[in-house]
Every structure is written in structure tokens, then in C-alpha cells.
Amino acid sequence: MGLIAEFKKFALRGNVVDLAVGIVIGAAFKDIVTALVDKIIMPVIGAITGGINFGDRAFKLPVPGLDAADQPEIGYGALLQASINFLIIAFALFLVIKAINKVEEQFADPGQPDPAPPPEDIKLLREIRDALVKNEG
User: The domain spanning residue 50 has which CATH number?
Assistant: First the structure.
């Protein structure tokens, strides 16, 4: 099998296409969640905590000989904001998967019904067969 044919077989596999669609939708969903966190949730949290913008929060490391503006910073606010983004995305995915599972349960095939019991004549013939086998053995 040639390299091109093997790549075509790999690239057009159903799982790869599903994964690609998921990544594109995930990237678009990330923008929505980032806007939600940046423009709605973080300002509310900032208002509750006295106007603090957590995205800009940082801790300056004191380095002797450097001006205050040149000192390195540990940006814990960005980590906090990314953590909130993660929690929102995880919760939204949980709700989507829960809804999908509920829909699948509604449309799931209940399975094959239990077969009807055999008629009386079939039961009688089976009893005769079993008795003949028992007498021969």
C-alpha cells in the first residue's frame, strides 16, 4: 500500500473526522467561555471582592538592584482566571453529555421482547424426546 493511500485511509477514518470536528467546535466554544469569564463572571467577582480584577493580579518578586517596574511577577490572577474557564467548560460539557445521554435513553431500542412460550404440543414432544433419550441411555 502506497504512502498516499495509507494516509488517505487514516485521514478519512470516522474517528479522525469526528475528532477534527470536536477540535474546531471546542476552539469556538473556548472563545465563548473566555468571553463569559472575562466580561461577565470576573467583573461580578471583582465587584463582590471590592473591584479587584483577578486577571491582572500578580505577586512581584523582590530582586535587589531592580526598579519596582522591572521586577519579575508571578501572575496568579491569570491562573485563577484559567481555572474558572476550565470549571465552566467542564460543567458545560457535563451538561451537554448528560443531555445527550438522556436523549439516547429515550430513543434507545428496548431490545427484543421475550419469546412467547412454546405451545403445549411442542412441550409434550420435548418431554417424549427426553424420555426416549433417558430410556436409551
Answer: 1.10.1200.120
